[in-house]
Amino acid sequence: MLSGSLVRDACSRQPHPPDRYNRAMAKLPVIHETRVVNEGGRFPVEQLDLEFSNGVRRTYERMRGSGRGAVIVVPLLDAETVLLVREYAAGLHTYELGLPKGRLERGEDVIEGANRELKEEVGYGARDLKIVHRLSLAPTYMSHVTHVVLARDLYPERLEGDEPEELEVVPWKLDRLHELVQREDCTEGRSIAALFIARELLRGGA
After folding, report:
1. Are residues 119 and 178 in the same domain?
2. Quick one: 58 and 87 in the same domain?
C-alpha cells in the first residue's frame, strides 16, 4: 500500500481529465443557418444548422425567447425571513408556493422589472435590489434566462398586475428551507435554486 505522501506525489504527476475535457469542449459549434419554423406562435421554435469542431453537422431546435428574459425576486422582510407567494400553476393544475417572478416588459431593465413584479405579486417595493445570479430553465432547447434579484429594505406598495386572483403571501424563515423543499406544493426549480443561492450569499455577508 502506498503511503499518503506517495499517493499525493503520484496524483500530482497525473493529467487532470476535467481540465483537458474543458479545453476540448471550449470551442463552440459553428451556426451556419437559423430559421423560425412557427413564426407567430406563442413559443417560436428556431432551427439551427450546426457544425461541431470534429466536422459533424446536425440540426438542433430550440424555443426562442423574447430576448428580454425574466426575473425571480428573493424579497427579504428581514435578515431571516423571505416572502413567498402561493399561486395557481396551470402546467400542473395545482397551487405552487414559490418566489415572485415574471417576464421583463419592453423597455425595462432587470432591476425595474424585479421591483414591478414585487409590487404586483407581494405588495411591497424595495429600496435595495441586487442582481445576484441568472438561471437557465432547460438550456439544451431553451434560450430563456431568468435573473435572480435579492430585494431588501422593503416598503408597502402595490401595483395592479395581471393575476386573476390575489396571491397569498407566505413568510418563510431561511433556516427552514430544508422543510420548504420537502413540501408537495414547492417544486419549481428556479425558486428553490434562487432561495439557496440567496441564503448562501447572505451567510457570506452579501
Report:
1. yes
2. no
CB neighbours (10 Å) of residue 122?
24
Domain that holds residue 41: 4-63
Query: pLDDT tens for residues 124-155?
Result: 999 999 999 999 888 887 878 999 999 999 99
CA atoms within 13 A on the CB side of 196: 11
**Could you give the C-alpha distances from 13 to 7, 16, 101, in angstroms and in order?**
10, 9, 49
What residues form DSSP beta bridges with 63? 45, 142
**Mean pLDDT, residues 101-127:** 96
* Burial class of 86 by CB neighbour count within 10 A (0 to 12, 13 to 18, 19+): middle
- The answer on 76 and 171 residing in a single domain is yes
Contacts of 11 (CB under 8 A, 6+ apart): none
Q: Among 23, 46, 63, where does a domain finish?
A: 63
Q: Same structural domain for residues 177 and 97?
A: yes
Judgement on whether residues 105 and 49 belong to the same structural domain of the protein: no
- Given a contact cutoff of 8 angstroms between Cβ atoms, the answer to whether 102 and 108 are in contact is no
- Range from 20-34, 136-150, 178-192 that averages highest in pLDDT: 178-192
